[in-house]
Amino acid sequence: MENLFINTIGDYTVRKCSKDDLSEVISINFTTLPEHYSDYFFEDLLRSAPESFLVAEKDGHVVGYIMCRVEYGFSNFKRFSLTRKGHVVSLAITEGNRRKGLGDALVRNTIEALKLKGCTEVYLEVRVSNHEAVRLYQRIGFEIITTMEGYYRDNEEAHLMALNIAAAQ
Ligand SMILES: CC(C)(COP(=O)(O)OP(=O)(O)OC[C@H]1O[C@@H](n2cnc3c(N)ncnc32)[C@H](O)[C@@H]1OP(=O)(O)O)[C@@H](O)C(=O)NCCC(=O)NCCS
Asked: How far is the CA of 33 from the centre of ligand 1 (A)?
């Protein structure tokens, strides 16, 4: 059986997601974020990028997750250059488990996993009103590259934020 363990933070374990975790991940997504996806979407991300699909667990229950896609496309840092990029599709920690460093740990560990997959950059979209998340990403080194008007269904703007992993090495 594959060893999913990555590290511990206090009473929490950070580890790779398994298929059995998906129902809890889907339920956390449903209760914490306005952007929801089909079950197939979660399964597909776990199949295609398992190294960067991580969960935080306490007492046998998932309390947070991060899931990413690995893409090939234009760099956010080097004009007209193509590169392999990690795309953070979704991140959430359940309400009672926030402000304990779990969000930070999930993002940092997923960046390490994406580096090993050959990504030179990581990027994501975040609501401009989501100050907690923007602060978290900025603390880790992400920059706001641009702001996209009407990005979300309710018309809110999104910041496109990116981290140049190659430069950070
Ligand atoms: C954004 C989100 C993922 C952050 O997760 P988190 O686990 O609370 O993040 P962290 O604990 O790493 O950091 C949050 C804050 O707690 C602080 N913190 C971390 N460990 C701490 C500790 N042991 N004691 C006290 N504070 C602590 C951090 O310094 C940070 O403070 P700041 O916001 O003033 O800069 C979480 O709020 C969330 O799930 N929100 C809803 C979903 C969402 O918005 N997802 C992002 C979509 S892009």
From this structure: 15
